[in-house]
Amino acid sequence: MAQYSGPIYMAFPDGVYHYVCPECTAICCRGHGFGGRMQKQVKSLYVLYPALEHMATERRGDYVEFASSSSPCLFLEKDNLCRIEKEQGGSLKPTVCRLFPFNAFRRIGHIIAVSPHFLCPLRMQVPARPGEVEGTHSLVEAGIRESEILDDGYIVGLRSLAFHPSTEPDRVLIREERFRNACSAAIGELSFYEVLQGESEAPFELDSFIERAAPILGLRASSKPRGRDHVDDMMLALASPFRLELLFLPSEAILRALALAGVLLRRALSIFNDAPDLKGAIGLLSNLKPAMCLLALGGEPLTLKPSIRIKAPDLGDPDLTMTAAAVLDELRASVAPLNALEKSIPAMFTVSDRSILLAQLGALIEKAVVLSQAN
Asked: Are residues 89 and 210 in the same domain?
């Protein structure tokens, strides 16, 4: 099959992510299966480990996937090293294992985007050290090209990311690379908010947006980040892979969502005695994403296809359910999301009720927006 020879977008800063497999006690090699190239690896593994054939579950082109138990992988030894690698050498390790954790592949149009798999407890290297840590772009890309995983049969099955119809895949790639490089240059030097302002066409409007969005979230209107701390480096390291889930928004709305992400992550981390690692932080951001996106849609009415209908949800509480219905009524009347939320949410709503409302409505509206943008 033909191999992909186009650009590979590394959706993470160069030389900032690092890991050491033998020291790991995480669950990456437990219960998540694995896969490899039939011609380059799997046929030889069948000869060496015949029982493996009975665990094949799926095939895409020359790529075969296997089941695994919920306990450690069959080939994971007590020293946390792979038996295949120890006995046969690294070249026979299944492709997905050889590339892990940089094996989350998705498409932006015809372009392949690679992001880390955050099952891995990646370490953050500040300052960045390209060439010295595992998360070096040139090393990751070389491994992907050498593995020949990106053939036509495999690519067809990759998830295609939704991106805003106002732009094209090639322009998205240019924008995302510019943003990633700005984050890379800022690690250890600038605040995340300064990077967002530098990328915005209307930087001062970010301030006014946060001033409007903060009270809806139950935060002080003066929630704009001040000074610089470890959360800035965490956001600078995570923003590029996190942005892949925000591409359905317009460019400025992505920056608004990320500004809120910084505010909310800093707020969430105030609970912890010890700051979570990158894996924990991206988990928090992913859970808070629907609320960020709903607010980031901002002061312009939603544009949905007439066929898209958003059903008012039952949120398990009469006040929450009635407020959700009121917000949706405003949106149907072409009221902008921020205006609809400001008008409909009662002043006496608790912070937790605001969070629940925004999370549930945000998920519904995101789905409707993405469906409306689809061809």
From this structure: no
Q: For all residues of the chain together, what is the average pLDDT? A: 89
Q: Check: CB of residue 60 under 8 Å from CB of residue 38.
A: no
Boundaries of domain holding 366: 318-373
| Closest listed residue to residue 119, CA positions, set 277, 288, 232 | 277
Answer for the pair 121, 20: CB distance below 8 angstroms, yes or no: no
In DSSP terms, which residues pair with 36 in a beta bridge? Answer: 64
Whether pTM > 0.85 for this model: the answer is: yes
DSSP 41-102: IIHHHHHH-GGGGGGEEEEETTEEEE---SSB-TTB-TTS-BHHHHHH-GGGS-HHHHHTTS
Do you find a cis peptide bond into 101, omega within 30 degrees of 0?
yes
CA end-to-end distance (rounded Å), the chain? 28
Q: Alpha helices of the chain — where are they, by DSSP H?
A: 43-48, 83-88, 95-99, 137-147, 152-156, 169-186, 192-199, 203-217, 230-243, 251-269, 278-296, 318-332, 337-344, 351-373
Is there a single domain that holds both residue 205 and residue 132?
no
In this structure, what token pair is assigned to residue 172?
A: 């998205």
**Is 203 inside any structural domain?**
yes
Tell me 159's DSSP state.
P
CA neighbor of 209 nearest in space, from 198, 220, 218, 221: 221
pLDDT of the residue at 6: 93
Domain boundary among 156, 187, 222: 156
The angle that helices 230-243 and 251-269 make with each other, rounded to 10 degrees, is: 140
pLDDT tier, 222 (very low <50, low <70, confident <90, very high otherwise): low
Which among 221, 361, 193, 202 is positioned nearest to 292, based on CA atoms? 361
Q: What is the mean pLDDT of residues 338-362?
A: 95
Statement to judge: residues 192 and 133 lie in one domain: no
Taking each helix axis from N to C end, the angle separating 169-186 and 192-199, rounded to the nearest 10 degrees, works out to 150
* Whether residue 238 sits in one domain with residue 189: yes
Q: Are residues 175 and 149 in the same domain?
A: no
SS3 105: strand
Helices 251-269 and 192-199, packing angle to 10 deg: 170
